[in-house]
Amino acid sequence: MYKMSLMPLFTAEAIQEMVQLLGEKIARNYKFDTIVGLLTGSFVFVSDLCRHFPDPKIKVLFIKASSYGDSTESSGKLDVSLAKDLDISGKKVLLVDDILDTGLTLQGMVKFLQEKGAAEVRSCVLLEKRARRKADIKADFVGFSIEDGFVVGYGLDCAGEYRTMPDIWTLEPET
Ligand code: PRP
User: Which of 1, 32, 90, 110 has a C-alpha 20 to 30 A away from that of 141?
Assistant: First the structure.
């Protein structure tokens, strides 16, 4: 069993500041036409981030990538769904996820989008965890970087719970 840390790891205010900085940095450095968000975790981040891009023609698509099930450990097996009608042929894609942990999801999804015909794929994550990387991949744009820890809130879940909280919290094992 897990309990929430006493204080948020990142407050809602700190997250909004970071999302604004990140959005402005991406807008300066990458002219893209399509955002692809990975459900479910990125739904909050995408909705905040996309409002910092001045180009009104940018499209927003979501597909589902799942690797954890109800566990706190990645299963390593990537399950992609809701992508049957995904049309990104020739598009310049910004792939957005909430967290980069082992990297297996981001690596798998970059490959998936390239195979679907994307002209270019660059990636953005709100939070990267450095300790447990298995795939040789870096996100092109990163908000926060932490060593390790099980984090929830702002879209991040534990067995589907905690996603709606505006702050990001660490879950700690109950002693
Ligand atoms: C989480 C998170 C990332 C992925 C990162 O998704 O949203 O997509 O894990 O982990 P990795 O770097 O070890 O691959 P999850 O499979 O839990 O699905 P969810 O988005 O529905 O929470």
Answer: 90
